Amino acid sequence: METTTETEKQVIKTQLKNIFIPSFIELLCSLGYRETGNKFSISYHGSKGYLNNLSIECEGIQKANNKILRDEIFTKKRSVRKTLINIFHSEAEGIRLSLGKDEPRKIKISQPEAGAFNKEPVPIDEEHDDLPF
Questions:
Q1: How far, CA to CA in Å, does 26 sit from each of 33, 39, 47, 118?
Q2: Residue 116, Cβ neighbours under 10 Å: how many?
Q3: What is the pTM of this model?
Q4: Residue 87 CA: distances (Å) to CA of 2, 29, 67
Q5: Domain ranges in the chain?
Q6: Average pLDDT of 38-62?
Q7: Which stretches of 37-77 are DSSP H helices?
Q8: How far, in Å, CA of 77 to CA of 101, rounded?
Q9: What residues contact residue 76 under an 8 Å CB cut-off, 6+ apart?
Q10: pLDDT tens-digit readout, 81-127
Q11: Where are the beta strands (DSSP E) in the chain?
C-alpha cells in the first residue's frame, strides 16, 4: 500500500463559551462550509437532565474525535471552562475537536496500489437474460 500525508486545516480557534451562542453557531456552520466544502452540524447531547457532550460533524468520513464531554466543558461550579476549542478538518478523518493550545496534525493516508482491485469479469447468470437491465 502506498502512503501519503495530509495536514489538517484549522477551521477555527475560539473560546469554548462561544459554542453556546446561537450567532456563533451560525457563523461556524457557514465558515466551516466555506473552508471545507462540507455542511457542518453541531449537536448537543443530553441525558438525565444534563448536557452529556457536544459534537461537531460534517459531511463525509468521520474517524477523528469530534466530541467534547461534559467534564471537559464545565467546571465543578457548573460554569463553562475558560479554555480554547480548536476545530480541525481533514478529508481523511473529518472533524477533530481539541481543547487548549493545539496545532494541525499530519495524517497518514493509505492508498491501495494500482491494480490491487479484482479486475476479473463477473459471470452473468444466463437464467435471467430476459431482465431489462
A1: 11, 12, 25, 46
A2: 10
A3: 0.77
A4: 28, 12, 11
A5: 2-113
A6: 92
A7: 70-73
A8: 23
A9: none
A10: 999 999 999 998 999 999 999 899 898 887 666 555 555 655 666 66
A11: 2-7, 9-15, 40-47, 50-58, 67-69, 84-90, 94-99, 106-111
